[in-house]
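Problem: given the chain below (126 residues), write out its structure.
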Amino acid sequence: MPWWSWIVIWVALVAVSLLYVGALGLWLWRRFAATRQELAHASAALDARRDYSDTGATVDESTTSATVSEPKIAGVAIFASPEQMKDDYFGAKAKRKSVRRARRVALRTQRRQLQKLSDVELSTLP
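Solution.
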């Protein structure tokens, strides 16, 4: 076999390899562009469904609990006393716990399941 045949074989192998890598890169680019376009459509759909009515900084006083005093101004927690912040934290924690308990009781009632005694507050009987 002459010496120049090896050069032709290696040039052909490199050309086929570059062609394969180029085709793979083109395929990946098209998949990426399609994914990016789908993400843009999904983002637009979510933005259309989002409710922007709660972006105001006002707080409805009728919905806030008397035990929980929520800061109405950003950064007010920095200047509050530690006792006030601790009271706010534990009040909000109790409120979240009672909301979870009410949701659990309603769900179990809907499914006609037995209730936990602690959920219906029967465990506090003397």
